[in-house]
Structure formats: C-alpha cells, structure tokens
Amino acid sequence: MEYRTLGNSGAVVSSYALGTMTFGAEAAEDASHTILDSYVAAGGNFIDTADVYSAGASEEIIGRWLARRPDARETVVLATKGRFPMGAAPNDVGTSRRHLSRALDDSLRRLGVEQIDLYQLHAWDPITPLEETLRFLHDSVCSGKIAYYGFSNFLGWQLTKAVHMARAHGWNTPVSLQPQYNLLVRDIEFEVVPAALDAGMGLLPWSPLGGGWLSGKYRRDVPPAGATRLGENPTRGMEAWQGRNDNPRTWEVIGAVEGIAAARGASAAQVALAWLAARPAVTSVILGARTIEQLTDNLAAARLELTDAETRRLTDASRPDAGVYPYGPGAREQRSRKIEGGR
Predict the structure, then answer these.
(1) Residue 217 — very low, low, confident or very high, per pLDDT cuts 50/70/90?
(2) Which residues are catalytic?
(3) 151 CA to centre of own chain
(4) Residues 250-299: tens digit of each pLDDT
(5) Which 8-state DSSP code applies to residue 189?
(6) What is this structure's pTM?
(7) Of 50, 66, 98, 264, which is least surrounded by CB within 10 A?
(8) Region at 274 (left for phi over 0; alpha for psi -120 to 50; beta for the rest)
(9) Residue 132: CB partners within 8 Å, gap ≥ 6?
(10) What separation in angstroms does the CA of 71 have from each of 17, 155, 292?
C-alpha cells in the first residue's frame, strides 16, 4: 500500500480509502466488521463514512468496531461528513452552526471517539453564509473535536472562495475535496482539479468505478439483472443504465479498460482504479466494497502500475467533450503564453 499526505496537511493516509456507505444497508454488521478487518490487514488506514449513511448506522457500526479494536483507533485516519438531512425539521439540514454543531456531536457519539480526523461538508449550502460555516469548522479544530476539515461535491469557484475566505480571516483552511471522479466522469478536470491544485488540496474520489460500470459487469444493450446495484434499480442515480448504455463513449472507455486488463492479467476494476490513483491531486481513492471479494480485488490495484502507453490509451478514450469554449483548444490557447513572447 502506498501512503500519501492528506492534501496540504501532515497527516498520512493510504492511497486507497475504505468507503462505508454500504454498511448497515448492503452489508450487515458482521460483514462490515470483516471488511474493516481485511482492509486494515492489507495496510489501509483511511476510513470514510457520513452521518447520512444508513441514517447513522454506518457510523455506529464503525464505532462498535473501533471499540472492539482499540489498536485500530491509534492507526486509522477517520473521516465523516455532515450537511444532508438527519431529520424533517428546517434546521436538521445544512451547514449552519446550529445544524453542524449537533451533527458533529452526534457523529462523535456514534463513532465513540473524542476527535474526528477529517470532518467534511457533504455538499455546498446555498442558504448558510459561508463565513458562518468556516468559522464553525475553525472553532471545531481549535476545540479539538476535529483535526482537519474538507469538502465534498463543491464546484471550483466554491472551493476557491472558501479557501481564500478562510485565509483572509486567519482561520484553518480545508485540506481535501471529495468529488465524483472516474474514467466515465472527468468533467471536474476543467475547473475543480485546477482549483484543488492551486489550493494544495487533495482529492478523495468517490464512485471510482462509476457505480460498477468500470468493473466490467455490464454488457452493451443487455439490461442489468440480478444482485447488482443496477440490476436491482436500473434508474439508480447518476449511473443509471439507459443514459450510459446509449452513449458510445461509455463502451469505448470500457473497451480500453478491458483490453488493458486482459493484456496485464488484471481485472477491469484494478485498471480503472490504478489510472485514477495516479491522476494529479488525487490523495486517496475511496473504495466502496460490498463483499470481501470485491475489496480484495480492488486493493490489488495498489500493486498495478500502468505504463505511459496504457495511461494515454485510457486518457484518450475517456477524454470529456470540452466543446469550443471555454475549455476547447482555442480557448485554452488564449489562457497560455510562451515565455519568449510572440505568436
């Protein structure tokens, strides 16, 4: 397992994190504890959850595992999130001081810890003043309830605004951003990745396999069935079956992944994960395994180093459509210059 610093902090995390959205929903407690044990045994030290995962059950399952494994608490970097609704009342959601103070205390209680290593805003809040949110996060660092904070699902301008506002006030600054990022979803490279690089923040990509699409489990024009996420719900979220199946780019990307996998004797998932882990600004890729078999296969990506030619093949096949402006070649040229001047 490779280790990297968590964005612009001094904390060190494994290049593959364990996402626990399945805990309490798709994975029962015993299975979840077995997954946690296997992940740590493989050298992983970064566990990511959220208060909204299974309505708090994911945090509770991790908390009971930590109580059973006090040695793990000394080595594991623990991350959770707050922002989404945990009740029906108007103040049960958002990034206000009122909601986050309760959400953070509830997460500390469910996890059974005195400090959360990385506390993340699960999404932007268009209602709460950003100063209120950032001051709460700064105060929480100063009080010792959290060690660092980060964001999830922020746009580039939102991230940049938050970073510079925190700096202007002399408050603690964010260290990480958790976006959706994979070979099928690369639009964050236009604005979000440059913003993170400029701020020195680390990316923690979620859905690195595109909801299972990049694992090779789906076939073109063959509707999914059985015990898979799309088999159970073909219209599920952003990875819904019909839209991606109808897009020729989907199958061009999957073809490139499977071709490299066959040549290297690796799984399609391992190839997709290895490409992502090597992208600029990426600190740790969040794995969302439902079974030990999935986790074992995914973690093997840590031993797979793609060649330059393989990386170019995947990057070219998955290149997002930039349009003409403002991200097309001509527009990019307007933002560049030669040091020697001239045209």
Answers:
(1) confident
(2) 53
(3) 10
(4) 999 999 999 999 999 999 999 999 999 999 999 999 999 889 999 999 99
(5) G
(6) 0.95
(7) 98
(8) alpha
(9) 95, 96, 97
(10) 18, 37, 22
